[in-house]
Amino acid sequence: QSALTQPPSASGSPGQSVTISCTGTSSDVGGYNYVSWYQQHPGKAPKVIIYEVRKRPSGVPDRFSGSKSGNTASLTVSGLQAEDEADYYCSSYAGSYRTYVFGTGTKVTVL
Amino acid sequence: QVQLVQSGAEVKKPGASVKVSCKASGYTFTSYYLHWVRQAPGQGLEWMGIINPIDDTTNYAQKFQGRVTMTRDTSTSAVYMELSSLRSDDTAMYYCARTGVVIPGDPFDIWGQGTMVTVSS
After folding, report:
1. What is the residue-averaged pLDDT of chain B?
2. What CA–CA distance (Å, rounded) separates B113 from B7?
3. Between residues 59 and 78 of chain B, which touch chain A (CB distance below 8 Å)?
4. Rounded CA gap, B113 and B97, in Å?
5. A57 → chain B, closest CA residue
6. Which of B45, B99, B104 lies closest to A46 in CB terms?
7. Cβ of A45 and B113 within 8 Å?
8. Closest to B114 in 3D by CA, of B56, B42, B38
9. How far apart are CA B4 and CA B121, in angstroms?
10. Which residues 2-31 of A are in CB contact (within 8 Å) with B?
11. pLDDT for B13-37, tens place per residue?
12. How many A×B Cβ pairs under 8 Å?
């Protein structure tokens, strides 16, 4: 299984929006509506912010939204805030017996 | 509260093995799958494999097959990940994380605090 492809970095000023892409194949992102996104602050464990492409767990602000088209999923963070500065990883179910694959990760900087 | 608590940091020599534990609490142990995910320093997340606490069934990422063994102990609600023939590039933070058993692509909703494994001569 190859890692899903994400841009290494993205940035925006407070209040702006930033969108991160996550490109896979028809065997993972394109084949299932089971894409999740994780936020990771330095020294911390990842935290799920989007699951099943566009659903948000309880407590996650609606500034975070997800979508998917074909083999590419996207995470949009609207109204950027200082605390959104973190690493973001996508993940997709990849079939077989509960196999998963992660993206390469994107560092989001709030300017 | 629901949590996964992992064992402490390890330092191992190349060629050795390491066994990391992950103890679950606050929920029914057999109602969730448990996975191991690792992260090398400054690098991304890498899925290593899954264990079903109900029947001990496992599935390992191709990269780790032959070197990793995941087991569980239902009496203590713990899972274990043993990695053998350690190399310097196995130096990483190792996390356990759970997913639900009903939906195949459930997200990793609870994570352990991580266990740092350092491989150095």
Report:
1. 96
2. 9
3. 59, 61-62
4. 10
5. B109
6. B45
7. yes
8. B38
9. 31
10. 3
11. 999 999 999 999 999 999 999 999 9
12. 73
pLDDT tens figures, A14-23: 999 999 999 9
Proportion of chain B above pLDDT 70, given as a percent? 100
Chain A nearest CA to B27, separation (Å)? 18
Q: What is the pLDDT of residues A37-64, one digit of tens each?
A: 999 999 999 999 999 999 999 999 999 9
Q: Supply A78's token pair.
A: 């609207």
Closest chain B CA to residue A45: B113
8-state DSSP, B2: -
Is B102's pLDDT higher than 90? Answer: no
Distance (Å, whole) CA A50 – CA A37: 5
Q: Which of residues 2-41 of B touch A (CB under 8 A)?
A: 33, 35, 37
Give the position of tokens 């690493």: A87
Q: What residues have CB less than 8 Å from B29, skipping those under 6 apart?
A: B53, B74, B77
